[in-house]
Design goal:
With 220 residues, the chain is α+β, with helices and mostly antiparallel strands. Among the domains are: 46 residues, Classic Zinc Finger (Double Stranded RNA Binding Domain, 2-Layer Sandwich); 31 residues, Classic Zinc Finger (Double Stranded RNA Binding Domain), CATH 3.30.160.60. The protein is 38% helix and 13% strand. The protein is built from 7 helices and 14 strands. It is extended. It comes from Priapulus caudatus. It is found in: Nucleus. Its main location: nucleus.
Length: 220
């Protein structure tokens, strides 16, 4: 069947099909239809191997590689392989050092747009991930996952030198320094060194005079 006039690209690439919710525009009606699913929540494409659902066939094709193990994109500088061109482009920046995504508030640069999006929550104070067992909220899904272990008691990270167990890789890394004696955190005012960022933060208050903890019964 021949496409209708409205389904065909507009002459000269003119974007005549406009979303009446956010202003998104496209020269193709089909692209607008797919876009509208971001507003309606419609996900007509479903994986037949798991519960995954998505808005378009391309996303489903990409997802299927998580089941098949297919990694058709290969780095020409190392042995890295991945499932998508966007993942390969992000990986290539580990070789080039390129950081094209810049925060327009503080100037921090990032290799991936997703990392910039997460960083922006520092400025907006957005915390979209909420614990359903308490009132804690988090800017990153990984932080919520770690937090949930305080409720479940799960401690999947184990020290190979002693019986210490903990809820996160960062806590395990900090613990390992009790064995190695490593002190990677250095005060930029004096020569003090310590094993954790938290200890350094407390030390810096000896220089700044900051006293954030207040007694609610006296002026201490």
């Amino acid at each position: 069947m021949e496409p209708s006039h409205s389904d065909m690209p507009c002459p000269g690439g003119k974007k005549s099909h406009v979303c009446d919710v956010c202003g998104y525009a496209s020269s193709k009606l089909g692209a607008l239809k797919v876009h509208m699913r971001t507003h309606t929540g419609q996900k007509p494409y479903r994986c037949d191997m798991c519960e995954y659902m998505c808005t378009n066939s391309s996303a489903l094709k990409l997802h299927m590689r998580t089941h098949t193990g297919e990694k058709p994109f290969t780095c020409d500088r190392c042995e890295y392989k991945c499932t998508s061109s966007s993942a390969l482009n992000a990986h290539m920046r580990t070789h080039t050092g390129e950081k094209p995504h810049v925060c327009d508030i503080c100037g921090h640069k990032f290799a991936e747009r997703g990392n910039l999006k997460i960083h922006m929550r520092i400025h907006t104070e957005e915390k979209p991930y909420r614990c359903d067992l308490c009132e804690h909220r988090f800017a990153q899904s990984g932080d919520l996952k770690t937090h949930m272990r305080t409720h479940t008691g799960e401690k999947p990270f184990t020290c190979d030198r002693c019986q210490y167990k903990c809820t996160s890789s960062s806590a395990l890394n900090a613990h390992m320094r009790t064995h190695t004696g490593e002190k990677p955190f250095t005060c930029d005012i004096c020569q003090y060194k310590c094993a954790s960022s938290g200890a350094l933060k407390i030390h810096v208050r000896t220089h700044t005079g900051e006293k954030p903890f207040t007694c609610d019964r006296c002026q201490y």
